[in-house]
Amino acid sequence: MKVTVNRKAHFNAAHRLYNADWTDARNATVFGKCANPNYHGHNYELIVSVKGEIHPETGFVMDMKVLKELIDVEIEEKFDHKNLNEEVEAFKTLNPTAENISVVIWNKLRLKIDENLELSITLYETPRNFVTYCGE
Ligand code: NI
How many domains, in total, are found in the chain? Predict the structure, then answer.
């Protein structure tokens, strides 16, 4: 019997979507307003989901205090109020799309969560646009 526990978090960040190998015109066509050279912000909503067996002694899949702290330290402190392109190492060479941000978040958290637990990330870039990544 496996149960999924979920923790919501939030960060505000700026980004620019841009492929340096392309002309400005092609970037504007593909990325639209998101290619604006002066950056723009999003209110990102993050849901971290951890799935596993219930521990018989605690009744927990994962202690939510521990999960909260992990998200605070590994994600919010590093991403909140940052310019993702300029200030987050991973995005110096990777376009900070919601897809790529979700993969970077998953990779950071995967290292810190018990390997017997399954991890998946849901990231809302806008209230209507969101992505999911579970390491596949
Ligand atoms: Ni954007």
Answer: 1
> Which of the four pLDDT bands, split at 50, 70 and 90, describes residue 40?
very high
Residues catalogued as catalytic: 34, 81, 125
Residue 89: domain span: 2-133
Q: Ligand 1 centroid to 42 CA: how many Å?
A: 6
- Sequence letter at residue 86: E
Tell whether pTM > 0.85: yes
Put the strands of the sheet holding 118-124 in their side by side order: 82-83, 2-15, 40-53, 118-124, 130-133
Question: Looking at residue 19, which CATH number applies to its domain?
Answer: 3.30.479.10
